Amino acid sequence: MNQRPDLGSIFLGPKGENAQVFERLLLEAFRDHVFWRRNFHPEDGFVIRETERSRPSFEHSISILSEELLGLLAELKAGVPFFSPRYVGHMASDLTMASLIGYFAAMLYNPNNVAAEASPVTSRMELEVAAQLSAMFGYDTDRQWGHLTSGGTVANFEALWVARNLKYLPVAVRWAAEEMGTDDLRVRRPGGGTESIFDLDLWALLNLRPADTLDAAEAFRTGLGDESRAIEAVGHHSMARLGYQEFGRRLFSEFGDALPSAVVLVPSTAHYSWEKHCRALGIGSTQLVHVPVDERFRMDVDALEETLHGLAARRQPVIGCISVIGTTEESAVDRLHEVVDVRERMAREHELAFFLHADAAWGGYAASLVWGADGSRRSHAEVVADVGCGEWPDGDVYQALCALESTDSVTVDPHKLGFVPYPAGAVCFRDRRVRELVAVEAPYLFHRGASEWGYIGRYIFEGSKPGAAAAGVWMSHKVLPLNADGYGYLIGETARGALTLHGRISRADWGDFQVVPLPSPDLNIVCFAISHPSLDTLEQINDFCTRVYEAMSVSAGRDARQIPYFVTKTLLKAESYGESITAILDGLGISDGEYRAEGGLSVIRCTVMDPFLASGRGSVDFMEGFVEALRTTFAAELALQ
C-alpha cells in the first residue's frame, strides 16, 4: 500500500532533529565500507601496522588533521544556513537525508562515472536515474537516453550541441549516400508524404523533423548493409567533423547561394548561459533570437509564431526552440503545450521543422505532480484538489508539465528541486539515437563488447564526474518516488509556502513604503519591488532595493549569524522584460521611458524551497517574522538615505 511520507522524516531538519538516525546511517555506511576493505583479499594483510601508529611522525600528522578539521568546522559555521526556514534566498535548501547518505556512502568508493570500469555500480545507477526522470517527462523509457551532468549549464549545452548536429545531419546523410552509391533514400517531409533525399534542396534538407532525420540516417545504414561503414561515411561528412567553415564552403559549392544563418529561439527571460552555448558551438550570439514574454513572464506564443512566420518567409532555418519550465528569476512556466501546437502548425503550413528543448533545470521535478503512484496521468482537477492550494497549479502550468512528453530533450537539475547535493544536473533525450551525433571514442576507456552502461563517457561532454552524485540522486528517488506521493507532495508543499508568502506580502501593512509583488508565481519563487515617496527616481529605488538585499544577505566581512532572514535580488532588464512589467512600473509610479533609460528594475527575490514554511509546524511563524524583518530593514535603510 502506497503511503505518503511525513516530510519531517525526509530531512535532517532545521535543528538537526533527525541527527540520531542520520548519524546511525552514516556510521553504517562508513563501517560497511571498512568491512569491504578488510575483506578484499584478506590474505594481503595490513599495510599500516599498530606499531607504526605510535610513531611521533604518525601522531603528528593525525594531530594536524584533527586540528585543521576543527578549524574547518569553525569556518563553515560562518556559511549560509540553507536548511533554515529563515533562508528564502537562492535556489538552495536543506537536502534529503537519503541523498546525503547515498552521496557519502558512494563517495568513500570514489567512482568515476566516465566509464564502467571505474564505476561498475554508480554508472548503472546514473542510467536508472535518467530513465526515471525521462519517464516523469513522459518519454518512452525503451527509447530515451539521458545522464547526469555537473548542472543545467552543461546539460543545456549538450542539448543544443545535439540539436545543431541534428539540424545538419540530413546533408551529411545525403553526401554519404552519394559517396556510397545509394540508389534511393526516401525521407518524410514535415508537411506529409515522402521524397527522395536527392531531390531536396537545402531548405528542405534543413527542415526535416528530428525523428524523420534519425529515421533517414537509420535507413541509410540499414540499406547499405554495413552499419560501421555507413556510420563512418556519415561522420566523414558531418558538421561535427568538418566544422562550420568547411561545412559552409561545401554547402555553397553544392547548393549555390547559402541560406541565412540558422537561429536558436529563446524567451527573452532565458538564462544567460544560452548566449554562452551559441558562442561556444560556433552558432554565434547574434543568431540567438529572444522572443518577448507576456505579463506572467512566459514566452509570448503569439510573438513566437509571428517570429517563425518571418523566418519561414526569409527561408532562415531554426536549429531549435527553447521553452523554459521555471525561470530562474520568477519561476515562470512557458505555455509549452501551445509552443508544441505552434511547431506542428509551422510544419504543416511552411514545412519548417526544428528541435524543441525544455529548459526545466528549475521546474522539471514539478512534473512529478501529474503522475499517480500507479503510473497513471492525473487530471488537472485531481492535482489541484490534492495539493489543496487554491487553484494552483493553474491550467497552463499543468498542461505545460504534461507537454514535456512532446519535446525532443529536457534539462532538469536534481540539485535544485531534487533537494540533492551538488553537482547533479541532468539532460534527457526522447530518442536515444541522438547519442551518436556527439559520440567520441576513447580506446583506453571504451571497449567493444562492454554493456551499454559502460559507455556513458562516449556520449557526453564532460569527462570525469562523481559517481557519488548518481548514488545520491538514486537514493533520494528511492525514498521519494517521482510521483504525486513522493516529489510531487514535497514540491506542492513548497508551492504552498510560496503562495502563502506572496499573499502575506500583498496584504501586509507597509506604512509609507510601497511593496509591489510580481504576479503570483507559477512555481515557488516570489519577487517584489520596493519604493517610498522619498525615492524620487528609479535609480534611487534600485539603490534602495540593493541596500535592503545587502542587509539581508551574506557578504564579505559579515557572516550568516548576524542576519535574521535571507533574501536575494535580481534585475528585470528593460531589454528582456519590455512591456511585460508595465503593471509593476505603474504600481511604483515609474514611467516606461525612465525604466528603459535606467536599464531595468531591481526587485527582491525569494526562493521558497522549505516545505515547512506554511505548514504550521514548530513554534515560530516564520512568515510573520520575515515580514517584520522586512519592515525593520526598510526603516533602517531609509534612515541612512
Summarize the structure.
The protein has 641 residues and is an alpha/beta fold.
Give me the count of strands.
Answer: 13
Structural class: alpha/beta
Helix content: 40-55%
Poorly predicted runs of 5 or more residues: 443-447
- Proportion of strand residues: 5-15%
Features:
641 residues, Aspartate Aminotransferase, domain 2, 3 domains, 44% helix, 22 helices, alpha/beta, single chain, globular, Aspartate Aminotransferase, domain 1, seven-stranded mixed beta sheet, four-stranded antiparallel beta sheet
Secondary structure: elements and pairs:
Blueprint: H1 19-38, H2 50-53, H3 56-76, H4 97-107, H5 122-136, E1 145-149, H6 152-180, E2 186-188, E3 194-196, H7 202-205, H8 210-224, H9 227-236, H10 239-255, E4 263-267, H11 273-280, E5 288-291, H12 301-313, E6 318-324, H13 336-350, E7 355-359, H14 380-387, H15 395-402, E8 409-412, E9 425-429, H16 467-479, H17 487-507, E10 514-517, E11 525-531, H18 538-551, E12 568-573, H19 574-577, H20 582-588, H21 592-598, E13 600-607, H22 622-639
Parallel strand pairs: 4-5, 4-6, 6-7, 7-8
Antiparallel strand pairs: 1-9, 2-3, 8-9, 10-11, 11-13, 12-13
